[in-house]
Structure formats: structure tokens, C-alpha cells
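Hi there, hope your week has been kind to you so far. No rush at all, and the record is pasted right below.
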Amino acid sequence: MNRDRGLHLCLTYDDGKKAPNPPGSHTCAIDPGEIHTLAAVATTGDSLIVTGRKIRSIHRLRNKKLAELQRKMSKCQKYSRQWKRYNRAKQYLLSKSKRQLQDALHKTTKQFVEWVVAQQVNEVYLGDVEGVQRKKKKKRSRCHNQRMSQWQVGKVKKYLTYKLKGVLLNDSPRRRHVSVRSATTR
């Protein structure tokens, strides 16, 4: 494959290892967020907060650079040489930030999965974020709406499902309307 004037090779293989049965019987509740990507608490009493500063920083830089390129492209005639240069720079910026975001999300979820294994958790509950982005009486600002639309809670759930499949007995985190505060009182 040719990506950004370079080659990209992707290989997958099965290592033949079976998923180990978790020795513990603890549960864990996750509260996903935009500032703190994952806030989790286990029935053991331990908690974990994984910040999303890196992810927010990548989004912010991408938005600023994209706005600058779009402003320059709007002054050019469409499909002119200069417009094509700006468009190529824009595509490079988007693909680079996509790769950076993917890497940051993988590192975030890996950190959480390692914590789950250390806590001997065999069941994970994911908090419900429905209604955070919409159903508000008050009108939000453009910056806030942009942040909410770029919040990658779906990708976080997909990565967690993939990574927890090899660690837990059940395949994916169960969706529940549970906040971290109420999970600690159980």
C-alpha cells in the first residue's frame, strides 16, 4: 500500500496461545471521559485514572493546522498548483494525526488492560455516555461542540473489546449506566 508517499505493511498472525482464565472474581467499572479517557475503579478498592491530555493535544494541533490550510486554500482557485500543494499538505496532516491518535489510544487502553490483569478482574462494566453530547437545554459553544464531536469514545470501546477478549472470560465490556462513584459503594 502507498500511504503518504511511503509504504505501509500490515501482518497478522495467530500465536496459538489460549487466553488464560483470570484467577480473581473482581469486577471493574469504567467511566469514559473527554478529559480523562478512562476512570476506573475495581471492587478491590483500587482505582485508575488515565488522562487524555496527549489525545486532546493532537486534536487541538490538528484543528489549528487544518484551519490554517483551509483558510489558505479558500484564497486559491480550485485545482490550481498552489491549491493542490495545500491539499496534499492537508491530507498528510490528517493521516499523520490519525496515526498519532491511534497510537495514543492503543497506549491508553493497554495501560488499562495491564491494570485489569494486576487487579485480577474478570468482569468489566462500561459507563453509559449517552446524552453527554446532546439533549442539553443550553446551547453550547462551537469549540465545545467540536471537542464533543471529536471525542473518540467509540474507538476506546472498540479497542477495549479487542484487548479484553484475550484477558477476560466474557468477550467485551458490558454497557451499564453506572458511574464510578456508585460503583465504589457496592
About this structure: The two ends are 51 Å apart (CA to CA). The chain is about 45% helix and 20% strand.
